[in-house]
Structures
1.
Amino acid sequence: MMKNHVVCLSTTNYHPLPTRKQNVMSRLRNSEVLYFDPPVSLIAPLKDKKAAAYLGKYRQPGARVEGHEHITVYALPPVLPFFNKFRWINRLNQWRQARFVRKIMKKHGFGGESVLWCYSPTACDIVSRLPHRALVYDCVDRHSAYKGHITPAVVDRMERELATAADQVFATASGLQETLAQVNPTAVTIPNGAAYEIFSRVQTEKDALPCPEDMRGLPHPVFGFVGMLQECIDYALIEALAKARPDATVFLIGRPLPGVDLTHLRRYPNIVLHELVPQPALPAYLAQMDVCLNVFRAGALSKDVSPLKFYEYLATGKPVVSTREPVQVEDFADVVYIAQDEAEFLALCDRAAAENDPDKTARRLAYGKACSWGERVRQIERTLYEKGVLHES
């Protein structure tokens, strides 16, 4: 049996938080995967102390992923900053990255038959430097909408070049697909998904899941949020909920990204800011939540995001209150409470907390199962098998 050799240039470290990249790579069949954690900028430790730990990581040997022995993880060397502002810097960075990746590929016997699988527009300048027979671009965000040291026109141009060169383009949202289809007609939408087998335990094992120590005695209803605390989250709505419902609990599980200041939320005694929880332990926390929150501020980034948390919420069967963005939530309007403004958001939080509708619970579970990572990856594989990008056996 001829195995596929996949070189994944990721935008997320393989550990500790599983995102689309890990969920796709871990479920690819008949494949050997070299997974490269994204590089750290040389100035990143000045803003984020945790980044300092990654500066020397690329010198360490590759690590096999326990439970997914077909994946070996490496860290890329650190890079010069401002690569999303100045193309010449990105070219210089990618030249250095290519030398490192080629060395690792050779070590593992990967050559010109490899499939290069990219997640960042910056990869446009490494493609020609790596041996490969096929290129996949999996677009998960409106990259030029991020804030920070970027020039949107530079990022958009890099993305167009990467997408044009790709043998197959995937996008997590219809807005992203429509943009990329202008330069590559292969672009198809395959949204994010959920580890249904894990999150459905909230219903299938609800009587067996122990209450976490740090959730005992909390006033109900508990309005919960799980995910990265990034800039595009609508913290004003969270604050409004805590202020309007002082007898309830707002429980946020996540890690603030650099630049996100949550000081104003710490003023509220009924807001709990909890650190990240390993995925296998999340069902016990979600089981104690009465309502799950999916709250995004309106904007270019939020409109086309495909939040993993939303599909994970569906897989729990729990009531979900969401903002209008991302637009994907409209596909589930029959079982999700979608608010147009702050007043409606507060009212829908009350309705969701009082919900007692087994039919809605069952339909959310059915949606969660249909959106499982197993189903998403089967869609991806079918597309790539038909094109001969991946070999089925």
Note: The chain is about 35% helix and 15% strand.
2.
Amino acid sequence: MFRLPVIYTCFPGGKHKVLTMSYDDGRKEDYRLVELFNKHGIKGTFNLNSGILDDPRRIPVSEYKALYAGHEVACHTFTHPTIARSPLDQVAQQVLADRRGLEELMGYPVRGLAYPNGSYSQDIIRMLPALGIRHARIVPTTGGFNMPDNFLEWAGTCHHNGPLMEKAREFAALNKSQYLYMMYVWGHSYEFTDRDNWHVIEEFCEFIGGRDDIWYATNIEIVDYMEDAARLQFTAAGDKVYNPNAQSIWIQVELRGEPKRILEIPGGQTVPIL
């Protein structure tokens, strides 16, 4: 009788929890928010409109590359229209123009989107892959920590004006390693100024940052990792695995009567499991 292991996908380092943040519009409060994220090792995706250049409340586009280094810059459409009301060809132009503008500034492919005004349709979702978009965030939240079924209709856990600390404490306490958990927080940095409540995000970052059991990732890092993990190739016996990707992927291996093991599968290598 051969031995059949139970194999689970892990996040980098063998972790089973990931935290990601998503903030829109590129207002000047992002200076303070990015500094706070950097201090606590937290990563965010910043959704920006490269076609809005005349708003003095916004960060100059010339500063994007330096400010958002180590984070992800994603689209928010070129001029922030309510796109569900727009013809599809105009939506395509809004997304592609924003991609081109942001890519020229950042120097890398921009592959994410936050739907402006929370506006989208199923026709838009179906079109996005052809426009080079791999993930897109919606406004409604789940209150939970599950991975999304569709990264192009990606619902967060909560807005930062929701039950943020309650969710953070619940997330920190999760310990069942047979599941993958994600906490996803979104908002606009100017809301902290408008509501005079910067202490909300400061308390959150201080509490949740710098933990050994959490992967801190941008939206696109999660998408890329999960797609790479799905490309692992296992033998029928489950005794070996080949990683055709460039980056390492981690798995958890459980065999009855033995302690569970965390294995790193380096890119381009075949690794024995048993």
Note: The chain is about 30% helix and 25% strand.
